[in-house]
Design goal:
Layout: E1 5-8, E2 15-18, E3 24-28, H1 31-37, E4 42-48, E5 52-55, E6 59-64, E7 70-75, E8 82-87, E9 93-97, E10 111-113, E11 130-131
Parallel strand pairs: 3-10, 10-11
Antiparallel strand pairs: 1-2, 2-5, 3-4, 4-9, 6-7, 7-8, 8-9
């Protein structure tokens, strides 16, 4: 049995858990992820929605994403931590933002996406596969 993916916000008011292996681990460089995270790219762990649960109050924000479909990002209303996303184009997945993992050393990105929007100064793992738009 695999170790659950667990994480929490900065203040600890929201905790989450996802059982099972990740479906993907990636760095997204789309402008929305840059703005939401305040960084050049957002490290993401994709898990099955059916295995995901959280405790605590969240504040959702929904916007049209890079897929052309709405995506909802969920924050802690107390400390503002960006915790997880629920992309409407793929309702069977949840995207965990790896900076909130209890054990971020488990994050092992397999690829980067939206590299056409990547910052010039960003040099995350240049040898991994890169896709100029959403990964296939």
């Amino acid at each position: 049995m695999s170790t659950p993916w667990t994480g929490r916000c900065l203040c600890g008011a929201v905790q989450y858990k996802a059982d099972g292996d990740s479906l993907a681990q990636l760095i997204c460089h789309c402008r929305d992820c840059q703005r939401a995270s305040g960084s050049a790219g957002l490290p993401v762990v994709v898990v099955r929605a059916a295995s995901f649960s959280f405790e605590g109050e969240i504040r959702p924000y929904t916007k049209i994403g890079g897929s052309g479909m709405p995506t909802t990002r969920n924050f802690c209303p107390h400390c503002g931590s960006l915790l997880f996303g629920t992309p409407h184009h793929a309702p069977d997945i949840v995207t965990l933002y790896a900076g909130t993992l209890d054990d971020p050393s488990r994050f092992n990105p397999e690829f980067a996406q939206f590299t056409s929007e990547r910052h010039r100064l960003d040099a995350h793992l240049p040898d991994m596969p890169h896709h100029p738009r959403r990964a296939p």
